[in-house]
Prior knowledge:
The complex is a heterodimer. Chain A is α/β, with parallel strands linked by helices. Chain A contains 23 helices and 35 strands.
Amino acid sequence: MVTVKIDGREVQVEPNSTILQAAEKAGVHIPVLCHHKTLNPFGACRVCLVEVVGNPKLMTACTTPVTDKMEIVTQNEKLQKLRRTVIELLLINHPLDCPVCDKGGDCMLQDLTFEVGLTNVRFDPKPNDTPFDHTNPFIERDIDRCVLCGKCVRICDEVVNIQAISFINRGTETYIGTSFDQPWNCEYCGQCMSVCPVGSLNNRVYLFKNRPWNLEKTESVCGFCSCGCSIIVEHEDNEVYKISEDPDLGVNHGFLCAKGRFGYELINSPEREKTPKIKKSGEFSESSIEEAIEYVAAKIGEIKGKYGADSIGVLVSPRVTNEEAFLAQKFAREVIGSNNVFSFETVNALPEGTYEDVENSDNLIVLNIDVTESNPVLGYAIRRMGRKEETTLSVFYPKVTSLKRVATNFFTGKPSEVYEKIENFINGLKGDGEFKDLADSFKGAKKPVLVYNPYDELDLYYANEIKTLVNNVITVPCRLKNNSQGIVDMGCTPYYKPGYVKTEAQADFRKVLEDGSLRALVILGENPLLHPEYSDLGDILGKLDFLAVTDPFMSEVAELSEVYIPVSLFAEKDGTFTNFEGRVQSLNKTVDNGVISDLEFLALLSARLGVNLPKGIDEVQDLIRKEVPLYNDVDFNGGTVKYPFVLDGAFALKKVSPKGKGKFKVFPGSLRLHSGSFTRRSQDLSRVYAEPAVEINPTDASKLNVGDGDYIILKFEDTTRKFRVAVVKGMPDGVVSLPNDFKETADLFHKGKYLKVDLVKHNG
Amino acid sequence: MKNIFDTIFFTEIFQGLGVTLKHMFKKPVTVRYPYEESPIYKFRGIHYMNVDERGVSKCVGCYLCEKVCPAECIHIETDAGPNGERLVRKFEIDLSRCIYCGFCEEACPKDAIHMSDRYDTVDSTRDNYIINMRYMVENRKNVKGE
Lengths: 764, 146
């Protein structure tokens, strides 16, 4: 510890901290413009210049490390004058269009101008006037307003590792741009926009919709993927205007992905239903909530009386909160008295590693998952880990993903070849084979981490192999949806009661539907028709005696239902989500669109059936603490759950055998910005990929004579489908990928995870 | 002595009648409102909107007047236009709430919103008290000196 004196205040800080950090600790304010706490020190703007006693030169507070007994002056006449001049110089070319600039009211340059007391610019102001750049679907760019702080360039490099933008030219001609002024080749994560201190990079989804001072900010948790990012929902009245971030909150250090940052329009979507609907003679007619619940209760009572409790089932989606999932299983097990509570989540793999483990790992393996697409914020952690000199990052995946830039080893190929390489790596762990060196370094690593896909049985088999062969390996199963982990913890599976207590009767969703023992089903938000494994069950679901669906949107399965009840989305309810690390985080209700939550639905329905389940969120949480031993002493604001096992079950080694005949092999890929159900409802995300696209490499594309954005005919067995083409470098020859959770593709992948197809150019 | 003279001859009455007589030849001060408009000077009345050379309102929808309005009677909605420009979707003032303080005029960075000297806000329904952008652009024509 060293002692520093800042403006007369003595403070003790760590030896290598900067003057700015010391000042923060001492409670002294130093103005900054180019500094951001998640980025490395840069020192571009010179606004933070301070005087060090005994040193004739001024020092930048954000880059200068402190020394012992350093005496620092942050405010005096000279520094004031200097800061004022620095801002004055920035304002020469800065257009003063604050009234039309979206950043007005939230702009660091505005604040600094006010802080230093600058009223007019002495020099001849020549505001730039180049047109706006709208080539990026999410980010509006105006290089005139840029102050060249370099935050966007640095965050794109240091955090996202895409390096899409950089400084072009030198001196007064410098601007931020891409090489040769090409369109942005980026992931649309919007990190650059989030750190821009001025209105140079703006959110196009929010563009000109409101002003920062009108917006109320509420902390919550993102409801798209399983990363569990803390977000700040900015809303006025009952409309969400913006999703922003806070570097001090949560696990994501203020980083978000395109889905979380730009996909929120689905909350305000005009497609959302507001009134419950009851189907009478094939036609939906609107009804009140009471009427709909009365109807559901009467039907369930009738079927229970006729066929017994086991003829009724509940299917829970990973989008619901822990509280709702807990009530759903309670509803099934206690109110109805049946063990038929289903979800499509895997129960064999439980969380072990956290973000911290991933970031501090020295040897990490990504096993056959495109993690930067499926769990983007975990992807940032892996990139940060991979960027370090001394670490080894190995990725096994059929196509080259964006981890390529940081990966030490990247193994691509046909899916079967990738599995061969994984097999070889396992052999290496056992002591021989071509991957022996890598396997040895993995075995000898201080903190080896394995990131894998828990939904594929073969991947689970290999993960289990690695786990048994390397004893100190930390596994990270990449679950997909926001509460994929939580609903399993809450016992929404026929195999386990809450807290992984094994059940006796174990029903299988497919089996009970096919043998007709299930007569009535209540679906909470799930859509089996988009799930490759269950996409063929539409006919059976349509013929059930009774089907009730709650969903924020009129989904494909909701159209088959007899009663449809619109429910709230993640920004409209209280509760908790458990992310892929097993971290429980609370979300807060921010807006109200006049629909009930699943929690209220379940409470009202069970009250109708004669059992009073708790309705308030606190009561349900108390009950969870009491009845789910795992959650007993977990902090619901960021505590992690301790799990009884990591990988459990007998995983069979099944060789990859593509179904069908054809020249091209298809594997299920994750399409950028989409994960099937929710994201397609967002108009803004759909601007990038509105429909599932076949990703193909440039050589194959030129052989087929198709280009980016063209249509292609895919022939698989008897089915032919038309898909858009996305030409992607790094896809192996003869291999294409297709997302598997879209309604256009789910039934194709029902036949098998890997397919062989023929591709023909679509004419006209 | 003078007092006696005044008391006997009622001079003050004639003085008073003189003043009355003088005013009979002057222009009348009373305004026959509502048949006539009363002349006003430095008055804050119904708002009007300045226009640019194309005849389009100068307002850019910066929300500053809405923010500064103590009566919260201004409602603005903006959006991005097809070419990414700032578009004022809605600009409404509820005159029944307005206290005519003139803060909006002060806050406007674009010299768009101003207050005219029109004060005839009387109407038969409350809905008519809500004026929009078109009304305010039209109202500019009623401003004297324009």
